[in-house]
């Protein structure tokens, strides 16, 4: 695979750097003209903004998110095919190309390999800031590569243009952990870091000490689970779970970064953390740890992050829609009202906070529940003559890690190492906040499954479900019939990972295709 970049496009997103006025304009004829562009703080900030822009665009393309999205009905043909593991869909380039992930890794490596050129113009703290950001994005991308494709490639830097063979999934996750640990050591707390002009970086897409800790908690939890599923020889699952607990505890205790804390109740959680894409509001979002920054143009077009919640939301958030719109194909994922009523029994406040008047709408005969977790749409005027508007997206970012999820991830790992008391305490912390029945409640079976269900309820429409399912080895019962029909050999051959896109094999005879997808037609 040749990942050499012949063109770097630098885009200044207002949402990521509102003070960015000088863009690094690099159109290199060769690599040398790229590496000469690291002279000072503003140029490095330009590269960092480019990386963040790449992440904004790519993060929405993970096919595992629609594969695992909770719903009673999916009205999108492509997503239905993904959920059904239909090879003709899974193998198309839109769902199988990893190029953009390696673009981010390449740009991150450019910073790490050339930042010494700016040492005479910058303080040591600023050098550490850029190195920390580069290690953070590298670690994040390797975690994604390891979870999405498994046996991906670990590159050796920007100077090596030879073909690469596959690394193992075990090695890719280890590479993610290595980079995220270096990022944690170098980065400062969220709310203290500044851009090249001295302005506070308020977007939570940038790396921070807390965001690195959150990704490490997830990386170790995934490592332990995959060590058990695939019998990784060099990883102790129990040690990995304990490491995840340690990183989760740093966030919960405040050791990793002071600004994080649970909101007092569900309505406060929504208003403080979920309801706004504007970076200026994120300092008050104490429960949100890592986000993919959304962005709208001045006319409200755009919406680059494409949050999963948009695939569920229609009336009453969309002011141009009616109650009947939920029956149409424009609304991809739908929950029946009865499902939501059963999911949130008793006094659980999330039922009424996440969905619009579920009980009364069901009584009136409406089959589906109307999502209301994000309550404000973003509207663009499409007719100046009539004032007609079109909802172009939701007023939110894509929250990637939230502290409530970290409590439940720690609970999951406690349960897996046999510490039921600690697992129950974390589980009930989240249930108590929602005024749900504490564990053990009448509907609870075993503790690990109760924790999984709690993540499903708490993080409804927050893109985590596929990886929660796989991490807990519930893919045969919690995903589609296609997953239920997978054999143990299918799993070992890579059915839970994606097909590697054909473009990766250009001029590369060392790279090997996923065994499962190589034998499916």
Automatic annotation (TrEMBL):
Its main location: membrane. Residues 332-517 form the RagB/SusD domain. Residues 1-17 form the signal peptide. It is found in: Cell outer membrane. Residues 93-189 form the SusD-like N-terminal domain. It comes from the Bacteria. PROSITE patterns: PROKAR_LIPOPROTEIN (PS51257). Keywords: Cell outer membrane, Membrane, Signal. Gene3D superfamilies: 1.25.40.390. Pfam families: SusD-like_3, SusD_RagB. Belongs to the SusD family. This is RagB/SusD family nutrient uptake outer membrane protein. It comes from Echinicola arenosa. The lineage of its organism: Bacteria, Pseudomonadati, Bacteroidota, Cytophagia, Cytophagales.
């Amino acid at each position: 695979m040749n990942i050499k970049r012949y063109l770097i496009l630098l885009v200044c997103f207002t949402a990521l750097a509102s003070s960015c006025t000088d863009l690094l304009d690099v159109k290199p004829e060769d690599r040398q003209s790229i590496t000469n562009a690291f002279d000072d703080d503003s140029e490095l900030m330009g590269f960092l903004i480019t990386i963040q822009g790449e992440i904004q665009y790519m993060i929405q393309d993970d096919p595992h998110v629609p594969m695992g999205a909770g719903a009673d009905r999916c009205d999108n043909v492509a997503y239905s095919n993904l959920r059904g593991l239909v090879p003709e869909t899974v193998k198309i380039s839109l769902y199988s190309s990893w190029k953009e992930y390696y673009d981010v890794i390449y740009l991150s490596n450019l910073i790490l390999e050339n930042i010494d050129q700016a040492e005479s113009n910058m303080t040591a703290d600023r050098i550490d800031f850029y190195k920390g950001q580069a290690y953070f994005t590298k670690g994040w991308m390797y975690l994604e590569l390891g979870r999405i494709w498994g046996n991906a490639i670990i590159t050796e830097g920007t100077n090596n243009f030879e073909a690469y063979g596959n690394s193992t999934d075990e090695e890719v996750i280890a590479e993610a952990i290595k980079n995220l640990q270096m990022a944690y050591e170098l980065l400062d707390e969220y709310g203290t870091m500044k851009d090249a002009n001295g302005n506070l970086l308020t977007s939570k897409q940038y790396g921070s000490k807390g965001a690195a800790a959150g990704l490490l908690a997830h990386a170790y939890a995934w490592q332990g689970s995959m060590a058990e599923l695939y019998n990784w020889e060099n990883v102790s699952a129990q040690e990995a779970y304990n490491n995840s607990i340690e990183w989760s505890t740093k966030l919960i205790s405040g050791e990793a970064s002071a600004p994080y804390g649970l909101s007092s109740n569900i309505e406060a959680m929504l208003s403080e953390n979920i309801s706004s894409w504007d970076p200026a509001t994120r300092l008050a979002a104490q429960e949100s740890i890592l986000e993919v920054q959304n962005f709208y143009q001045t006319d409200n077009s755009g919406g680059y992050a494409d949050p999963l919640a948009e695939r569920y939301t229609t009336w009453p958030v969309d002011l141009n829609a009616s109650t009947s719109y939920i029956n149409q194909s424009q609304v991809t994922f739908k929950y029946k009202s009865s499902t939501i009523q059963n999911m949130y029994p008793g006094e659980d406040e999330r039922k009424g906070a996440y969905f619009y008047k579920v009980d009364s709408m069901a009584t009136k005969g409406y089959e589906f529940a109307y999502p209301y977790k994000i309550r404000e749409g973003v509207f663009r005027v499409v007719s100046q003559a009539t004032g007609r508007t079109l909802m172009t997206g939701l007023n939110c970012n894509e929250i990637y890690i939230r502290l409530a999820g970290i409590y439940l991830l720690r609970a999951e790992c406690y349960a897996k190492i046999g510490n039921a008391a600690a697992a129950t305490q974390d589980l009930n912390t989240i249930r108590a906040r929602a005024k749900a029945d504490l564990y053990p409640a009448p509907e609870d079976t075993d503790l690990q499954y109760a924790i999984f269900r709690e993540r499903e309820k708490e993080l409804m429409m927050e893109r985590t479900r596929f990886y929660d399912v796989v991490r807990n080895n519930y893919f045969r019962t919690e995903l589609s019939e296609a997953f239920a029909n997978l054999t143990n050999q299918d799993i070992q051959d890579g059915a839970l990972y994606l097909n590697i896109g054909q473009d990766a094999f250009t001029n590369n005879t060392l790279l090997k295709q996923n065994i499962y997808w190589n034998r499916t037609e």
